Amino acid sequence: MNPFKYGSIVLGKDFCGRKDLLEQISNHIKASQNIAVFGERRVGKSSLVYEAVRRLRGTDLLYMDLLGIKSTDALLKRMLRAIVTLENNVSWVTRMIKTLSHLRPTITTDPVTSMPIVSFDASVELKADSIQEVLDLIESISKKKCFVVVFDEFQDILDINDADEAIALLRSKIQFHNNIAYVFVGSMRHKMDEIFTSPNSAFFKSAIPLTVDPMPYEEFSKFLVKKFEKGGRKVFKETLKQVFEISNNITGDIQQLCEALWEVTPEGDAVSSDKLKTALELIFSREQKSYETFISLLTDFQLKCLTALAKQGGRRVYSMDFVKAVGHHSSASVNRAITRMININILFKSGKEIRFVNPFFMAWLLPRGR
Ligand SMILES: Nc1ncnc2c1ncn2[C@@H]1O[C@H](COP(=O)(O)OP(=O)(O)OP(=O)(O)O)[C@@H](O)[C@H]1O
Ligand SMILES: [Mg+2]
Q1: Fewest beta carbons less than 10 Å away: which of 18, 20, 217, 227?
Q2: What's the gap in Å between 255 CA and the centre of ligand 1?
């Protein structure tokens, strides 16, 4: 069986390293200290928080993923569903539902798992004033149960209509929950900064910031080599170095490329650099449809900028060479094209550099010279 896992949370024997961060998170949680976990996409933020809580035996997780959230109504429904999952006790949930009867929830039991499932009358729209009620509910559960509250992809809260109000209401309750640790996880640095480090934000300095960096090469490569060896495949150091490079050092992408390398290497064979091309072709064939969708969203000029960026790297987008490569357009139009591609999540800004969200898309684009 392929030992490499990507695209989902990894725990236990699939979780490598992060000793210091695990310890820090664990200490903060024990002290009921709120934390904000920052890091690039697929670097390992969610796994880190899950693993830290898993190691704190006896502590549950109230986990809410805010990815793609667009309204306060959706936020509250996700929070309530998470609470029901945490409680997992039909009679308690029924009682809780009574206190929220104006939200018209209904409760059913999953026939397979016997877990309670809560659903809401679609015609009732939950408003911001219920945020505090739901947080009171969380506090009341904390009196009889030990758990950590995690808001994952927290930056997406900025996309809801009345974001400022929702954030202020959350903050006003959370600051009094002295016995609960809240963990806010987010990936888009500038958006998380807006929430936690902008003096105008209600969450300003309200949580200890922790940054998840790419995994150090030495530690992560040892972990990967062991996985290859267990399955009777020897991997060359040089090949692994190239894997890190192509994947831009991003943890999840490194595992994805290793998964493909494993697939294209028969047992007993060596994983050498010549297998990289075949492994990438495998990834391309699986992801081709999404690359084509990205391209269909772009104008000719945006595509030119994207290709120039793949060729020249994202540090020099305002250089003469770059402007020449895209046909002597002004820096303002280059800027607009890049901003649009950041908005549709093809590119992102990392410090002063513009980078591809998906490094394999960049590798696919390059030889095609689009
Ligand atoms: N500690 C780790 N050890 C081994 N692999 C890891 C580790 N952390 C992350 N990964 C790899 O990265 C992938 C993504 O991890 P995870 O979902 O935790 O990252 P994330 O930063 O939360 O991603 P996203 O930005 O998509 O939310 C995992 O599926 C796994 O392949
Ligand atoms: Mg995540």
Answers
A1: 20
A2: 9
Torsion of CA 181, 41, 56, 63, to 10 degrees: 60
pLDDT, position 286: 96
Rounded to an integer, the average pLDDT of 183-191 is 87
Q: How many CA atoms lie within 13 A of 310 on its CB side?
A: 21
Q: What angle do CA 272, 277, 280 make, to 5 degrees?
A: 115
Ligand nearest to the CA of 222: 1
- pLDDT value, residue 369: 57
- Across-strand partners of 117? 108
The continuous run of DSSP H or E covering 296 comes out as helix 274-296
Do residues 203 and 34 make contact, with C-beta atoms less than 8 angstroms apart? no
What does the domain layout of the chain look like in residue ranges? 18-212, 216-296, 298-370
Pairing of strands 35-39, 208-212: parallel
Identify which of 18, 49, 188, 251 to mutate to test ligand 1's pocket (most ligand atoms within 8 A of the CB): 251
Cα angle: 330, vertex 332, 336; to 5 degrees: 120
Ligand 1 pocket test: which of 5, 10, 218 has the largest number of ligand atoms within 8 Å of its C-beta? 10
Ligand 2 center–CA 46 separation, angstroms: 4
Cβ-based neighbours of 48, under 8 Å, separated by 6 or more? 18, 21, 22, 25, 37, 212
Please give the model's pTM, rounded to 2 decimal places: 0.90
Closest-lying ligand 1 atom to the alpha carbon of residue 8: 29
CATH class of this structure's domain 18-212: alpha beta
**Bridge-partner residues for 211, per DSSP?**
38
Contact 71, 160 (CB under 8 A): yes
Least confidently predicted of 112-121, 236-245, 257-266: 112-121
More confident residue, 289 or 197: 289
User: The domain 298-370 is classified under which CATH number: 1.10.540.10, 1.10.10.10, 3.40.640.10, 1.20.140.10?
Assistant: 1.10.10.10
